[in-house]
Structures are given as C-alpha cells and as structure tokens.
Amino acid sequence: xxxxxxxxxxxxxxxxxxxxxxxxxxxxxxxxxxxxxxxxxxxxxxxxxxxxxxxxxxxxxxxxxxxxxxxxxxxxxxxxxxxxxxxxxxxxxxxxxxxxxxxxxxxxxxxxxxxxxxxxxxxxxxxxxxxxxxxxxxxxxxxxxxxxxxxxxxxxxxxxxxxxxxxxxxxxxxxxxxxxxxxxxxxxxxxxxxxxxxxxxxxxxxxxxxxxxxxxxxxxxxxxxxxxxxxxxxxxxxxxxxxxxxxxxxxxxxxxxxxxxxxxxxxxxxxxxxxxxxxxxxxxxxxxxxxxxxxxxxxxxxxxxxxxxxxxxxxxxxxxxxxxxxxxxxxxxxxxxxxxxxxxxxxxxxxxxxxxxxxxxxxxxxxxxxxxxxxxxxxxxxxxxxxxxxxxxxxxxxxxxxxxxxxxxxxxxxxxxxxxxxxxxxxxxxxxxxxxxxxxxxxxxxxxxxxxxxxxxxxxxxxxxxxxxxxxxxxxxxxxxxxxxxxxxxxxxxxxxxxxxxxxxxxxxxxxxxxxxxxxxxxxxxxxxxxxxxxxxxxxxxxxxxxxxxxxxxxxxxxxxxxxxxxxxxxxxxxxxxxxxxxxxxxxxxxxxxxxxxxxxxxxxxxxxxxxxxxxxxxxxxxxxxxxxxxxxxxxxxxxxxxxxxxxxxxxx
Length: 653
Hints:
Helices cover 60% and strands 14% of the residues. By secondary structure, the protein is of the alpha/beta class. The protein folds into three domains: 202 residues; 151 residues, Reverse transcriptase/Diguanylate cyclase domain (Alpha-Beta Plaits, 2-Layer Sandwich); 232 residues, EAL domain (TIM Barrel, Alpha-Beta Barrel). Strands 8-9-11-12-13-14-15-16 form an eight-stranded mixed beta barrel, surrounded by four helices. The protein has a five-stranded mixed β-sheet with strand order 2-3-1-6-7, with helices on both faces.
C-alpha cells in the first residue's frame, strides 16, 4: 500500500538553500506551535473535565499533548545535528506528515467535545479551534505547504461543522473564521513568496560574493606568482621574509636569506634570443622547485635573479652545504635541439640575526655576498661574513667620499700611449682616471670606478673626466688621438649619453680623433641599448673601440653587431705569448680577423722585448703597455712623444 506521505504536497529538493532556510526557521518555531496546541488543548480539556467522558476529556488530550511534547523533544535534540540537503528534505516531509496526523487528531478531538457541556463550553471549543489555527498559521509562515494543509484540515471541518449547527452565533463565528483565515492565507502566501525571494536574493548575493572571493583569491595568487616560472614573485618573497622573521624572533632562532643569480645568462639571452632565455628560466625554476621543502623555498625576483629562504639549518657549514646542492643542480646542462648549454649559478646568503635584523638589511647583505661570489667564487655559495661587513664599510666610505668630492679638483687623468711599432710613432693616448681623495688618499680606479657605477655616481665622474680629456686633446698634435673609457651606465642612461654627445660636439676637437672605449662585459646588461648608444656616438664621427676583447662570452657576435673600429686584445693573452700556448694562436687569429674586417687591433699589456718580438712576428703593429710607457700626467706627455719622434717636441705646446 502506498505511503500517505506520497500524497502530500512535495518539498522541492532542487532548492537546497530555500529548504535549509525553511528548516532553520521551522526548527525555531516548531516548539511554539506545539506549545500553542498543548496550552489550548489543556484549557479545553480542563473546562470539559466534568461534563465529558474521562477518555475524551482526560486521556485523549493527554495522549495528543504527549505526542506534541515528544515532537518538541525530537526537534530540540536534533537542532545541532548537521544535515545534508537530502536529509533536510526528508525531515521536512516527515514534519509535514506529522503535522497532518496531529492536525487531524486535534481537530477530531475538538469536534468530539462539542456535544458535551453548555453553551459556554461549546463556545470554548469554537474559540479553541479558531485561535489554534490562526496561531499555527503564524508559526508556519515559512512553510507554506504545511500551513495550507493545517489550515485546510482545521478550518474546513470547523466551518462545515458549525454552519450545520443552526446556531446563528456559531454560523457567524464560522464565517468570521473563514474570512479571517482567508486573509491570513493571503498574508501567508505573500510572506512565503517574499521569504523565498529573500532566500533567492541571499543565495545570489552569496554566489556573487563567492565569485568575487574566487576572483580575489585568483588575483592575489597572480599578484604573488611569477607568470613565467610560476614561482613566488618578489612581492611574495619579501612577505615570506617578514613572516619567517617574526616567527624566528618569537622562537629565538635564526634563518637565512639568499640571492641567486645565473652566471652568463644575459650573454646567452642576447646570443640565442629571449625565447631561449625564457626556456632557461623555466627549467631553472623547475629545478629549484624540486628542491623546495618546509625548510627551503625559492622565488623569482626578476630577470635571472632568484630569492632563497632557508628556514632551518644547523650551522654555517650546513647552510653552505644547502647552497652547494642548489649550485650543483644549476650546473646541469640545458639541452636544446642541436646544442647543449651549461650555466652556473652564484649564491649569496645572509644569516639572521648576525648579518642583519630587518628584511632590507638581510637582502642587502645577501646581495653583497652574491656580488662577492660572482667576483671571486663564481658558481658557488658564499655566506656574508665580517670580512664582507668590513668591505661594505669601506665601500660606504668611498661612496660618501665620492658624494662629497670636488671632482673637478680631485679627479685627474693620466695618459698611456698606443704605439704603431711599424712606424715607431704614437698614434693616440688612452686617458686613465685617477682619484686623490682628501679623506681617503689615493684610491685605485679598480675600486672607485666599480663603486661609482653601482651607486649611480659614475655619470658625474664621466662628465668631469671627459672635459679634461677633450681639453687635453685640443693641445695635442692634430694627428694624435684620445681614447676615453665609457661605463655601461653611461650607455644605458639617456641623460648621460646626451651630455657626452653635447660635450663632444662643443669641444672643438675633430671627432675622428676621439675614440670611446667600452668593455665587452659592459654590454651584457642591455646589449640592444648599448648598441643604440654606440651608434649615436658613431654618428658624431667618433671611433668606437672594444676593450678587453676575448674575455667576454660572445665576442664575435659583438663585433658584427656593433659599430666597432678597433679591438683591444686583453692583456691576459699577451702575458704568455712567448710560450707555445694557445694564447699565441688566439692572438694571431684575432689579428687576422681584424685585418680581414678592416679593423684596427691593439695588443694590451706588452711589457717585454720578447713579447714585442713575438707580436711583431705574428703581424701585430698597434701595441700598448709598460714596455713603451707607464701612464703619465699631461705635463709628461711631451717627453713620451719625444722618445718616439724627436721632431714632436718642437710642435708640442
């Protein structure tokens, strides 16, 4: 036989949010509904206890009220039980069924009491049934199905019964109750509709909030992830440092911040293109990610620079072991169709709290340790130490002295000749910077030039020294050239380049006598910008020289992509030229290359007669070095000129 529940109006299982809201409201109001039933029924039973049979006036209401109390206990006991959508639908259906059974039972009981008692008792029955149904409608406002069922179960029998009594009062009461119930049902339907709409609006709002939260989470993820490598980015890296730092302060322990840089990446990027470079970065990130764990994490800071956080190591040596593993992984070859590329990575560490107590200090110290590693231990890890701290103080002293310097008075130039040994004459002088600081004394160019470049003070120095070099050239014999060194920073800064061009144009020196020297390694950071800058200088009519040739990564590539007039072979090849070393073959090959390309070729660092003889035998003609002359002041240049051609002393002013 089919279950009676199947014939009840169905609860829509497709609206889980509405069902949940109805269930929550119903669970709060069901005790009130049963309270109304129990109180009203007890009052009617009390007034009929002396006129109605005991089973009808006492036992039956006790049973019905007991059932209502049981339902209340069940609801209260299950109020804190988490239910899924299907369980809620089942519970609502069961509750509607229980209300139908109880509604029929209480209605039948009330009508059964009517024949007993006087007019007052009968009026109480009418009042009981009418006030009970109205109260129940209010309690079931969110449950339209249950409210309509209960109203129909009570009002239809009630109205039918009392209209057939023939009593005008009861007929009026039944009509009154019908009309009021109709109004209540209208209110019920409106409220139920508004309740459903409110739930739907809340659901839409929650869905929108969920979408916005999802979008916000995705934006936050993207804002903290490097799009190329999918590693945490610079923003996330410094945020993680802050978090780890706070944790380590609380736990009174240390951690390390590292900065990692790929050696030679920029040259590869220029040589093979950005697509290949991106592939290198992606593979590098994949290798680093494979090393990540709860103690070690990595981030991409930009370009080929990566950040490292080591949150857990036993000692300085242990940290170096961790860094060694990282550097070893980076040495693995990068295989591409037709070739295999190998790179190394240098790594600098700074330990909290020894090297610094803020994220900025730790990163700065780690970056300095990286710089030291690239200069002295390329492809290996270095931990910031007291030695580096001393160097930083020295660098800071040099930077401060440069900032406070009267550069025009403190900076001077010395000049070293470039000799054509075939004609036994000087063809030009290279201008070399010297600095005598009132506070620091004489500071070597190898010290202050690099510091000036890193601190962006090089532009002032270049301008001051270029003025001196051009003034020197104006008083030199007209067939003597002047060679001036430019920094990579000068080539990269448009303002600095514009100042160099303006000084050259206004100097009164024939542009063909001016030669700007750049080192190949100076072109690495931004080759395209450097090439563009050199083209601008070439357009003035000046000459371009590529210094320290042979020590860079892609020398031949540089030669054909730059407006070069001269190559200067690095002194490291000349040092062993007298022995049967590969250097001799390299020098001859480069010299022959220059001859074929129509370029001048200068041999730097010639110091002995033996070296001179070998170089002459290889066909080299332009040379520079201590064998011919040390760098001399402008006042001593005339003497140097006279050694090569006595007639020059007469024309020297």
